């Protein structure tokens, strides 16, 4: 019989853990630019105001474990 600790609660070693990040703030303060810079290392100095909600994902590895960051933002 396999112990719960050995099974990793149904997670396989290749599957990453999903972490959700929400960025809130007033319009025009740079939430989209911050998110774009973090996700794709790109800065667009001619960006327009975002209408609605935007989602972006990035997979990172920390201490040999993979994490998928789902970054969401909306204006406050």
TrEMBL record:
Pfam families: Ras. The keyword Manganese does not apply. Keywords: GTP-binding, Nucleotide-binding. One of its GO terms (cellular component) is late endosome. It comes from the Eukaryota. The keyword GTP-binding applies. GO terms for biological process: retrograde transport, endosome to Golgi. InterPro entries: P-loop_NTPase, Small_GTPase. One of its GO terms (molecular function) is GTPase activity. Belongs to the small GTPase superfamily. Rab family. This is Uncharacterized protein. It comes from Arctia plantaginis.
């Amino acid at each position: 019989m396999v112990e719960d600790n050995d099974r990793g609660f149904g997670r396989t070693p290749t599957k990453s853990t999903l972490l959700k990040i929400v960025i809130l703030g007033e319009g025009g303060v740079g939430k989209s630019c911050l998110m774009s810079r973090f996700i794709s290392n790109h800065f667009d100095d001619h960006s327009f105001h975002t209408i609605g909600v935007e989602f972006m994902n990035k997979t990172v590895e920390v201490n040999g474990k993979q994490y998928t960051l789902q970054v969401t933002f909306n204006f406050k």
